[in-house]
Design goal:
heterotrimer; A: Sodium/glucose cotransporter; 5 domains; 5-stranded mixed beta sheet; 34 helices; 11 strands; C: alpha/beta; Rossmann fold; 5-stranded parallel beta sheet; globular
């Protein structure tokens, strides 16, 4: 008898054992290599064999002979390429800290959260059937075992009340196990050592249990293989099963799909990639795992045939042969062992799968969503680990619930294997994105997105949804005639592709859509920079600097290649030199050597870095020696260096430009200074000259007078007059020079008062009147009676007018000369003009005359008419007062000098209230 | 094989060995062929038996085992170091 | 035959004083008031000595000096440069151009007369 409680106790006992193993492994095995060994690793990969393997294979074998094998041959073949493909994925995942399939895909295609979320959703939906199949297996086997020793057909779950439904309880239990095993803490590397240990143990249990039953059947029920198969051959329907035809057309598609899914199933990715502790473990795993598959499948056919022979057709569900046979032969312990084996297979799958899925849901679906919603203030939460755990646990519960729902709705309509294959086809949709991703740099995000969506949609349409129809949840006509009667869109015969079994049909269309869309979009798409970078990093993960130990070049390198590369960069002579130097230093003979060792390569690399920089040298050596092109990452490195160099040189250029500008400025300033200096020298020499000239006369005549006592009186008088005049001239000159210098250097002490210009003119006129009278030059003055005051230095202004008058006098011919002084009051200033009818001033000199020492000579020879400073002084005075001075003249017709002086501040109009002007200050803001 | 001056304790990263890669690819192709429906029909002679077991079954498992064995052998060769360089520089007092 | 002196000077008062002095010393005096006039005068009749002011219009004293010296026919003409420019470099320039002497203004009339007599008396 096998009472229910015994079964339950056995089950719990087994699970407790698993817990103990997990706990022990976590506590003591961590980091000590207990768990991290290749055998454990290979065994953990055997989680691939689930209840499907345990029960479903036999069921499938009973229907189609060797048709169950492809699921296991596929992984075998895939692992043959494991050292190539799997290792690449392993390396990529380590380098880029990938913790799930969603992570891998999202990272490859530019760290796209959208893609990660999509992969997660597809995974959850796709794995749902797979989970439900485990539930079905365990609940069915439990129910069958309950009826020990009577073997009956499985009870329809639909008949069971909800809470009596063992499957529900089992689902709840499994969710609890998964939570307890896989979400006890958050680990950054997502390593679950305890879980891995438990899974490895389970794989052993599975194998032992199944093999035990197999042995029992083969040697207990029959006399070995020979006998078994001979008896089977005797029955026609069974004989048929021994042929290849029995497998049907599924052989190749299933093999192919299984090859893909060995890495695409979330739990497989978890144990192969995420939980991997050491890349070198892969070396053993690539043959250990196929060996396990071989071993566990040896007895599938015997058990199948055994069951078919033992039980009349249709009485016992072939999926339950593994249990039923021991039961029928009254082997309670073996039956219990078988049950535990099946339970083991199921729980193993559930735990790992839900942990993997919940990690994806948490990291690639929920958290990105949360991060988008600012109000949740994710970044500010300190206790994120608590939140993460909560999310994962909830996810596990929800996933199990979904699995259970699928089971209730669909479960018993299909055989275990069929259900499993639906998930396989779903998982296969990740394969293009992953495989293209790690080999084709051009695979783009949009391509992956479109491909996966297309494949998923087709898969859903051709497998998932029709399964609802077949279970009675959708109209059957949907299957028969297509949606709305469109025959071309029949889910099981899309576009008229009839005659294939559902799985193959779905695989064909979904992968076609997936790969087609993927390739088409990727080829026509432009990738973003991050995609290109990630693409290069992934595809060339083995050529990353991290892949080789720093500075070490291992392996044999053809010397000729090395020489050629050195020549390329250093030139023939220089490269020969360095090789000679190396040979001399290390006392080796390179003439007959074919290969270069690490030292030489490093030596060359170092020499090269002197020429092209360290990073570039490393890259060039690496890529040249491997004969492949330079990748983007390397180009980026080189570009980085180059851009740094460019930056420096740009800065240098900028600095040198600034320097140039400064130099030019300096030169200009220097020139100005030199000019000023020269002008100063000129001024000095001219002043000197002007001073010495009258001095010369004074001295000469003084001496003459002294030395010539017998000079007649007229001559004596003449000479004395000259002396006096020249003295005056000298004095005048000295004063003028001093004045002008003071004006120009701003050191003139102006006595600023309100001045009446009319008054000034009167003064000046009276001072020079005698001169005019002597030469009989007519002098007239026109000025209004009252002139509004201007602000200025009275004496200077008088001097100004005197200068102008004396100029006018000089240039007038005696007797006919006429000089007129006029004063006009304007709106803002007073204008005074001094007009003469003398020789006039040529146009080209009308500006020059105001320059220092410019002397206009009467005629071309003859005395200079003045010191040449008078007008310069006039200009200095006028401009200091804010006015202007200029001349209008026509040669031969005289000249008129004008100057303006603005009114005292505060006066704008020309009103005549002088007193008001002096007191009125500040109206214009003085 | 002594690592170039580095501590030999750390397992040196092996650059992808080209021979083994070719070997694995060859094995893979062999597997595809061995398990192809084509070859299956060859061994699918009805009634042919090996020690009572249908030839087909024996063939499949035998082929499988052979492939596994070859893989094991090839993977062991991954550990073999590539042919050592003929040059061994003598340590000099001055640096390179 | 009295020695002839050519006074090249544009300042009238100085011309007057030089004329007086030279006449008093017994020389024949001609006057030129600018460089061109001076050269024309030399061409017309080469003087025995030139009192050559530097700052004269048209062609300055240095120019005249150089021109006179360039002509082998006038090798015998003595040239005394007069100028208000007293810098050493100006003096050297004058000497370099071939002047026999260089006098800065204001000059001592006695010294000047002495120099002239010396130069002309030499050949007398």
């Amino acid at each position: 008898m096998l009472p229910g409680w015994l079964i339950i106790v056995a089950a719990f006992g087994y699970v407790s054992l698993l817990f103990a193993i997990a706990y022990f492994a976590d506590r003591h095995g961590r980091g000590r290599g207990l768990i991290a060994n290749p055998y454990i690793y290979a065994l953990s990969i055997a989680v691939y064999c689930t209840a499907w393997t345990f029960y479903g294979s036999v069921g499938l074998a009973a229907k189609s002979g060797i048709g169950f094998l492809p699921i296991y041959l596929g992984p075998t073949l895939a692992f043959l390429l494991g050292w190539i493909v799997l290792r690449k994925i392993l390396r990529i995942s380590k380098v880029h800290h990938v913790t799930s399939i969603a992570d891998l895909v999202s990272s490859r295609y530019g760290k796209s959260h959208l893609l990660g979320g999509l992969v997660t959703i597809i995974a959850v939906v796709g794995i749902m059937p797979y989970l439900s199949l485990q539930l079905k297996a365990v609940s069915t086997s439990y129910n069958v075992l309950l009826h020990y020793p009577e073997v009956t057909a499985a009870v329809t779950p639909a008949d069971m009340p909800f809470f009596g439904d063992t499957a529900l309880w089992i689902a709840a239990m499994m969710a609890l196990f998964a939570i307890l095993f896989g979400t006890r803490h958050i680990d950054a590397t997502e390593h679950h050592e305890g879980m891995v240990a438990a899974i490895a143990f389970e794989s052993v249990v599975k194998l032992v249990a199944f093999t035990s039953v197999g042995l029992f059947v083969t040697y207990g029920l029959f006399d070995g293989f020979h006998d078994l198969f001979a008896q089977a051959a005797a029955e026609p329907r069974l004989a048929q099963l021994q042929t290849a035809d029995a497998a049907g057309g599924q052989w190749f598609p299933l093999t192919f799909t299984a090859m893909l899914t060995i890495i695409c199933l979330p739990r497989q990715f978890q144990v192969i990639v995420v939980e991997n502790a050491d890349e070198s473990h892969l070396k053993k795993a690539i043959w250990l795992f196929p060996l396990y598959l071989l071993l566990i499948n040896i007895f599938v056919l015997p058990i199948a045939f055994g069951g078919l022979l033992r039980f009349p057709l249709g009485t016992v569900d072939a999926d339950t042969f593994v249990l039923a046979l021991p039961m029928a032969e009254r082997q309670p312990l073996l039956a219990l062992l078988a049950f535990i084996g099946g339970l083991s297979a199921a729980t193993g799958m559930v735990i790992v799968e839900t942990v993997a899925l919940s990690t994806m849901i948490c990291n690639d679906l929920i958290m990105p969503l949360f991060l988008r919603f600012a109000f949740l203030r994710m970044s500010e939460r300190r206790d994120l680990s608590g939140l993460l755990l909560a999310i994962r646990r909830t996810a596990i519960a929800v996933i199990m619930m979904l699995g259970y729902l699928y089971f209730r709705l669909i479960g018993e309509s299909f055989a275990l294997a069929s259900i499993g294959l639906v998930s396989f086809a779903a998982a296969a949709q990740f394969a293009p994105a992953i495989l293209f991703g790690i080999y084709w740099k051009g695979a783009s995000r949009r391509g992956a997105l479109t491909g996966m969506i297309a494949g998923f949609v087709v898969w859903a349409y051709t497998l998932l949804i029709p399964s609802f129809a077949l279970s009675g949840w959708l109209e059957e006509s949907f299957i028969e005639n297509g949606p709305m009667g469109i025959a071309l869109l029949r889910p099981y015969a899309l576009f008229g592709l009839d005659g294939l079994d559902h799985i193959t049909h779905s695989l064909f269309w979904s992968l076609l859509a997936n790969v087609g869309a993927f390739a088409a979009v990727s080829l026509s798409d432009r990738q973003s920079t991050i995609e290109r970078i990630q693409g290069t990093l992934f595809v060339e993960v083995f050529r990353q600097p991290g892949a080789e130990p720093a500075g070490m070049w291992q392996g044999a390198v053809p010397l000729s290649d090395l020489r050629a590369m050195a020549e390329r960069f250093l030139g023939g002579d220089r490269s020969r030199e360095i090789f000679t130097e190396y040979a001399r230093r290390h006392r080796v003979d390179l003439t007959h050597a074919t290969h270069a060792d690490g030292d030489l390569v490093q030596f060359v690399e170092r020499r090269l870095s002197g020429v092209i920089g360290a990073a570039s040298a490393r890259v060039m050596v690496a890529t040249t020696l491997k004969g492949e092109g330079v990748g983007l990452e390397e180009i980026m490195q080189i570009l980085d260096e180059t851009s740094q160099v460019l930056e420096y040189s740009r800065q240098l250029e900028q600095k040198s430009r600034e320097l140039e500008r400064a130099t030019t400025d300096l030169k200009a300033a220097n020139e100005r200074l030199t000019e000023l200096d020269r002008m100063k020298d000129d001024f000095l020499s001219t002043v000197t000259h002007e001073l010495r000239t009258p001095l010369t006369s004074i001295r000469s005549f003084s001496e003459i007078l002294h030395d010539s006592p017998d000079l007649d009186l007229t001559e004596r008088q003449h000479f004395l007059t000259i002396i006096i005049r020249e003295s005056e001239r000298l004095t005048r000159l000295i004063n003028q020079v001093l004045d002008l210098t003071k004006i120009e250097t701003g050191r003139m002490k102006w006595q600023m008062t309100d001045v009446d210009l009319g008054d000034v003119i009167d003064h000046a006129v009276s001072a020079l009147r005698h001169l005019f009278e002597e030469k009989s030059i007519e002098l007239t003055v026109h000025a209004p009676d009252r002139v509004p005051p201007i602000h200025g230095d009275r004496d200077q202004l008088i001097q100004l007018v005197i200068n102008l008058l004396s100029n006018a006098e000089k240039f007038c011919r005696a007797g006919t000369g006429q000089v007129d002084v006029s004063l006009k009051t304007g709106a803002r200033a007073v204008t005074v003009s001094v007009a003469d009818n003398g020789v006039g001033i040529p146009l080209n000199e009308q500006e020059l005359i105001f320059e220092k020492f410019h002397q206009v000579r009467a005629g071309n020879t003859g005395n200079p008419m003045g010191s040449g400073l008078g007008l310069a002084i006039c200009r200095g005075i006028v401009e200091h007062l804010g006015g202007r001075i200029w001349v209008r003249s026509t040669l031969g017709k005289g000249a008129t000098f004008f100057f303006t002086v603005p009114y005292a501040r505060g006066r704008i109009d020309g009103s005549e209230t002088a007193s008001a002007a002096t007191t009125e200050v500040g109206a214009a803001g003085s | 094989m002594e690592a170039n001056g580095a501590g030999a304790a750390e397992a040196p990263e092996v650059i992808e060995p080209e021979r083994e890669t070719a070997g694995f690819i060859a094995l893979y192709l062999l597997g595809v062929v061995l398990f192809s429906p084509l070859l299956l029909t060859v061994f699918d002679a009805a009634g042919a038996r090996v020690a009572g077991v249908p030839l087909l079954f024996v063939y499949l498992f035998a082929a499988w085992a052979v492939l596994i064995a070859l893989t094991a052998w090839l993977s062991r060769r991954i550990d073999d170091p590539p042919t050592a360089a003929p040059l061994r520089p003598e340590p000099q007092s001055d640096g390179g | 035959m009295a020695k002839s002196i050519l006074v090249v000077e544009d300042e009238p008062n100085i011309v007057l004083s030089l004329q007086f002095l030279m006449k008093k010393a017994g020389f024949e005096v001609r006057v030129a008031r600018d460089g061109e006039e001076a050269l024309a005068a030399v061409e017309e009749r080469a003087p025995d000595l030139m009192l050559l002011d530097v700052m004269i219009p048209k062609r300055d004293g240095y120019d005249v000096c150089q021109t006179v010296r360039a002509n082998p026919a006038w090798q015998g003409v003595y040239i005394i440069m007069l100028t208000a420019k007293g810098r050493e470099v100006d003096r050297e320039k004058g000497i370099a151009l071939g002047a026999n002497d260089y006098v800065t203004k204001p000059f001592s009339t006695r010294d000047l007369t002495e120099k002239v007599k010396q130069l002309l008396g030499h050949t007398a």
